[in-house]
């Protein structure tokens, strides 16, 4: 019989235990040096995904630039919590979380915290994507956690559509080829699409 997971709200206790971006990076780097990653899957392939994720986050941390328009927009946002659901091995997370972190750094009223998907199934199952526990998921909440402002994820809409097309007819390329194309797209896009989608979230959620 399939286990039923109790759905729970994001609570002050969970926020207190959640990680900052720096703590998250330190955790996954420490685990990797021990030959481990986050979550129950400790296979060689997931360790390799984690190695690549660490490299990508380091690269983005050094190269991300936020334009003036986005800087001004984020500075106008009211106090809020950004809760990110992720895992160390997730390629989409490695490509997008550094940019989200840079945005949060622009506004002292934005608190960014990260939690692991597989340690928090009751939270994750409230933010499924087409029935799947796809990550990362960014949830914006009021400081008191009573109101949800917006949700983004697990990837830009363009990639969501490309993934749907690939799953519908995967004959044209292998899974490895498709994944390589996805990461090449991220490198060329330089988070412009992510920024545009988050801007839409901001305008829809707040009277700016």
UniProtKB/TrEMBL annotation:
Pfam families: Thioredoxin_9. It comes from the Bacteria. This is Thioredoxin. InterPro entries: Thioredoxin-like_sf. SUPFAM superfamilies: Thioredoxin-like (SSF52833). The lineage of its organism: Bacteria, Pseudomonadati, Bacteroidota, Cytophagia, Cytophagales.
């Amino acid at each position: 019989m399939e286990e039923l997971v109790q759905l729970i709200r994001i609570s002050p206790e969970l926020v207190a235990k959640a990680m900052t971006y720096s703590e998250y990076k330190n955790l996954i780097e420490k685990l990797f040096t021990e030959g481990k990653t986050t979550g129950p899957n400790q296979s060689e392939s997931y360790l390799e995904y984690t190695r690549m994720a660490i490299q990508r986050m380091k690269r983005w941390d050094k190269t991300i630039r936020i334009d003036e328009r986005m800087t001004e927009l984020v500075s106008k946002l009211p106090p809020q919590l950004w809760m990110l659901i992720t895992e160390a091995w997730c390629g989409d997370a490695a490509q997008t979380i550094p940019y989200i972190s840079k945005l949060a750094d622009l506004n002292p009223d934005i608190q960014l915290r990260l939690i692991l998907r597989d340690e928090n199934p009751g939270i994750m199952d409230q933010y499924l994507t087409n029935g799947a526990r796809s990550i990362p998921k960014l949830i914006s909440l009021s400081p008191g956690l009573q109101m949800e402002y917006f949700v983004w994820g697990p990837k830009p809409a363009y990639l969501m559509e490309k993934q749907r097309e690939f799953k519908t007819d995967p004959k044209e390329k292998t899974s490895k080829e498709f994944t390589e194309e996805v990461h090449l797209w991220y490198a060329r896009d330089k988070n412009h699409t992510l920024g545009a989608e988050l801007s839409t979230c901001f305008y829809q959620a707040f009277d700016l």
